[in-house]
Structure formats: C-alpha cells, structure tokens
Design a protein that fits this description.
Layout (H helix, E strand, L loop, with lengths): L1 H8 L17 H8 L8 H14 L3 H12 L6 H17 L6 H18 L4 H13 L3 H14 L4 H14 L5
Helix pairs in contact: 2-3, 3-4, 3-5, 4-5, 5-6, 5-7, 6-7, 7-8, 8-9
Length: about 180
C-alpha cells in the first residue's frame, strides 16, 4: 500500500512512475481495490484516495464524480464521509470549471455544512467554510467559522491570516 502513497505524493525518478510506463497515475490504488489481501486502508479510503488523485491531476470532473460515487456507498465510515464532503466543498469553492460563482459557492457551503454534520470537530472544514462565507461577504458567519476552526484544532497561520484579512476588509477606514 505504501507504493500507492508514493504514487500519490510523487517521486523524484520519472522512470519509476507507472505513468512513465503508460499506466494510469492511480494504478496502485486500483490494484489495491481489487486485491483480496488484508490492507491497512478500507476500500472506501482507497476510493477516496483515487478521487483525490484525480483532483490533484486537475481532472476535476472525474474527481467530482468519484467523490459523489463514494458518497453513495452503504455504511460509509463517518470520517471518510466527512473528508469526502470537505473535498467536494473546497473543490466547488476553488475550481472555476464547476460552474458560476454563485452556484459554486452555494454547493461549497452545502457540502461543507454536511461535512461538519458528519464530523463537527474538523478544524479544516470550519476553516474552509469560513473562507466560503468570507468570499460572499458573510463576515459574521465567516468569523464564527474561523473561531470554530481555532477551537476545534490547533489554529494554523492560514486561519489567523484569514481572520486578519476579514477584519481589515470589514473595517477599511481603520488601521
């Protein structure tokens, strides 16, 4: 299974990569899905990583379809569901090919809220939700989301920076 992670996060030697040999980038994960041997990752986690590979490759339609297909899985573990919804939400917020800004933001917020229903302690989902609210001018909602992000996880520099930007933009005449 480590080979799949190497494929996902890259190697230095191009000749060692399956795609250099004409194989798909997610080849190792595809093999892991059909392998009947015991694996440290569940089938759902492997499917998530395949979808995430599509996203990393900027194959956004394929990623969206793979994430949405994964959400149809019966008895999907809560953490996989939360992370899948989080990725869908963030993709809708950041990827232009997924529609016009208003529609994308609406979907992004819906996906992130569903992610937080599955895992209310995800600081990353709260942060992403704050970014979405900030981008549509919902300053109070953005601030609340950023605050939740700080409360749920160790606050990152990104969260504090986003709070600073939010305060600056909501009070443009003060320094």
């Amino acid at each position: 299974m480590m080979v799949g992670y190497i494929q996902k996060y890259g190697q230095n030697e191009a000749a060692d990569r399956p795609q250099a040999l004409g194989m798909p980038f997610n080849w190792h994960f595809q093999l892991a899905l059909i392998d009947s041997n015991l694996c440290t990752l569940s089938k759902a986690e492997i499917q998530f990583h395949i979808a995430h590979l599509y996203e990393i490759q900027k194959k956004y339609r394929a990623a969206k379809e793979a994430y949405e297909s994964l959400l149809q899985t019966e008895n999907l573990p809560a953490q996989v569901k939360a992370t899948t919804l989080q990725q869908l939400g963030w993709m809708h917020h950041t990827v232009e090919q997924l529609g016009d800004k208003g529609t994308k933001d609406s979907y992004a917020i819906q996906y992130l809220q569903k992610s937080l229903e599955a895992d209310p302690n995800s600081g990353q989902s709260w942060y992403f939700l704050g970014r979405c609210y900030s981008s549509i001018g919902k300053v109070q909602d953005a601030f609340i989301s950023y605050r939740q992000s700080i409360d749920k996880s160790e606050a990152s520099a990104d969260t504090w920076c986003s709070i600073g930007v939010l305060i600056f933009l909501s009070h443009p005449n003060s320094q």
